């Protein structure tokens, strides 16, 4: 089985990075397999909301 890892140093506060990756509107910018992601219900992101 093939296993690959990659890491990147991000010069931003942890909270800013978390807010960015937790916002589905940004998914297409950092996840190449995603074409579109939209939140379909109000409230925090969780199972079944994106």
Quick structural gist:
The chain is an all-alpha fold and 50 residues long. The chain has helices at 14-21, 27-30. The protein has 2 helices and no strands.
Beta-strand segment tally? 0
Order of helices and strands: HH
Strand content: under 5%
Helix proportion of residues, in percent?
10-25%
Helix/strand-derived category reads mainly alpha
Instruction: Tell me the overall shape.
Output: extended
Q: Which parts are unreliable, with pLDDT below 50 for 5 consecutive residues or more?
A: none
User: What is the residue-mean pLDDT, rounded to a whole number?
Assistant: 86
H/I helix tally: 2
Structure, explained:
This protein has a domain at 13-39. The chain is 24% helix and 0% strand. It is built from 2 helices and no strands. The radius of gyration is 13 Å and the shape is extended. The model has no long low-confidence stretch (mean pLDDT 86).
SSE layout:
Blueprint: H1 14-21, H2 27-30
Task: Jot down its keywords.
single chain, 50 residues, mainly alpha, 2 helices
